[in-house]
Every structure is written in structure tokens, then in C-alpha cells.
Write a structure and sequence with these properties.
The chain has 76 residues and is mostly helical. The chain has helices at residues 10-23, 30-44, 50-57, 69-75, and strands at residues 4-6, 66-68. The chain has 4 helices and 2 strands. The chain is globular and about 25 Å long. The chain starts with a strand and ends with a helix. The model has no long low-confidence stretch (mean pLDDT 91).
């Protein structure tokens, strides 16, 4: 069972801003999310798909209100 929480809370927005600060840019294009995936894999040896990140940032055509705790854990 995958645990998830609502992605539209202030703590998630703060996390996204922190991730962008570490990345050194606002994440807004598919290429940005691909680069973040590579950075996460190189640094943490964890994988999050670019589509998962795009959904979290709201840059996906598919709408999801929840985010998995594992995704949040990796981003933290």
C-alpha cells in the first residue's frame, strides 16, 4: 500500500521552492525535470520519474491531488 497526502498544502509548496533553490532554477520545462531526475539519481541513488515530478509541480496534463510519501522523502 502506497501512502500519499494532498499535494496542495503549504509544506509541499515550501519543499518545491527549496528543491528549486538547490537546483538553482525554477523548474518549468521537461528538460529541467529530466535534469533533476539525473541529479537525484547521482546524489541519492534513488529514482523518481520526471512525470511524477511534473505532476507534483503541476506541469502535467494529468491532474493528481496526491503525492506519495516516498516521493516527498526523496525530495527532502
Amino acid at each position: 500500500m502506497t501512502m500519499s497526502i494532498n499535494k496542495n498544502i503549504p509544506q509541499i509548496e515550501a519543499l518545491k521552492k527549496r528543491v528549486e533553490a538547490v537546483a538553482g532554477r525554477r523548474l518549468s520545462t521537461h528538460v529541467h525535470f529530466l535534469e533533476l531526475v539525473g541529479d537525484i539519481e547521482m546524489t541519492l541513488r534513488e529514482h523518481i520519474s520526471e512525470t511524477t515530478l511534473e505532476r507534483l509541480w503541476g506541469d502535467s496534463t494529468r491532474h493528481y491531488d496526491k503525492v506519495s510519501l516516498r516521493t516527498l522523502d526523496v525530495l527532502c
